[in-house]
């Protein structure tokens, strides 16, 4: 599976602090009351936009926010469906990251 990703100015390899910086700089701004959940896996980090209503205490990784992956080796960002982090990580491990030259237009 090809994973289409977009470049960042990341310091590689990406650690949690760098993933947090990339998320703040390159991903959509959080809406009031929303937070970001960043979860590390072997080859990257899943980043979830979490709305307060989607974060009950019995479900630490909510489904329903925007999901991104930051690649550890390159810092590139890819967009994902709203699947749990372990599902995204397992799928990501089977893919090949292809990094575009630029980000898509916001139109």
Blueprint of the fold:
Layout: E1 2-6, H1 16-26, E2 35-41, E3 44-50, E4 67-71, E5 77-80, H2 85-93, E6 96-99
Strand order of the largest sheet: 2-3-4-5-1-6
Radius of gyration, whole Å = 13 Å
Number of domains: 1
Shape: globular
Summed over residues and divided by their number, the pLDDT gives a mean of 86
- Determine the N-to-C terminus distance: 27 Å
**Number of helical segments with 4 or more residues:** 2
Question: How helical, in percent, are the residues?
Answer: 10-25%
Please summarize the sheet with the most strands. 6 strands, mixed
Structural class: alpha+beta
Which assembly state applies to the chains in this document?
single chain
How many strands? 6
Spell out the helices and strands N to C: EHEEEEHE
Q: Ranges with pLDDT <50 over ≥5 residues?
A: 58-64
Strand content: 25-35%
Structure in a nutshell:
This protein has 107 residues and is an alpha+beta fold.
